[in-house]
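Need tokens for this chain, all 147 residues.
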Amino acid sequence: MLYWHWLALGMILLMAELFLAGFFVFWFGLGALLVGAVVWLDPNIDPALQLLGWSVSSGLMTLLWFRYLRPLMKDRTQAGNARAAVIGESGRVLRPPHGDKRGMVRFTTPLLGDDEWEFICDGPVATGDRVYVKDFSGNTLIVEKRD
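Here are the structure tokens for all 147 residues:
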């Protein structure tokens, strides 16, 4: 095969990646471009060796992607996970719960866009006590007194 055959195959595979789910055809296209560059440098390479080079390079790039590179690109932020971002945050009690009325707690930095939240807790708390978020119950925080 001539070098431009490999380049054309590589471009077709790269464009096919736009229409397919997943992310593996890209590596076969990149392998074809790599073989095209090698054949451009040395046009006398046997076609069977070219196919072997394409298979090995595509397989290696696919393996490297799924095994090493993709895990490094995982999103480790708490974005989109509101519960995990709020659990453990601490604030001060503005108004303790009384009877059926829920208490009010203020945080130094807003949680989910608001710095004051209603709360419930198991133990007694007083105005000014520091509490931390244990969980949610609807739009109400479940807090525990911090020592």
